[in-house]
């Protein structure tokens, strides 16, 4: 494969990384309404326990755990919009920087063919500056992905807690007599929200894993060609 085609393939990889970042960003935004629904559910659970009076004492304890569950979801996603915005920006910068690199590489080839030494030296200097910017952006993007992974890692634990709480809520509903209907409604909604959270979390982890693999592949395929020029 010629160097020019190889460079263009690397450029396509940068564009792919940017597209993956955009998809991940869209998926992460779906966590925000889920967190709001979780807090609304906790409010409904508190109201159901209050209506049950002393018969809702055991369920009232569960409502506190449901509230904490919503807080955990909110805490996990609190920093993700800022981190994700930085990741998307860095990916866009990398794609743009590499486009500039390709343009300069083309000019560099023309200068060599025309034996324009002065232009050739200037282009080498500018090209090297772009290479350094690419290195810096690559490093920052990798750091951002690690940070995002750390922010999202507690969600898997939250899902497990939610599944356990939904089972406990159903058990309590079964023994709550006339108040069991409202308790079971809370348990049913909790199961649904936790199920959605689990599916979205799995989807996001998959996208993040694919993105990290693309970053690693991209760096391996062109680091010798570019970083050693």
UniProtKB/TrEMBL annotation:
Residues 210-229 are annotated as: Disordered. This is Methyl-accepting transducer domain-containing protein. It comes from marine sediment metagenome. The lineage of its organism: unclassified sequences, metagenomes, ecological metagenomes.
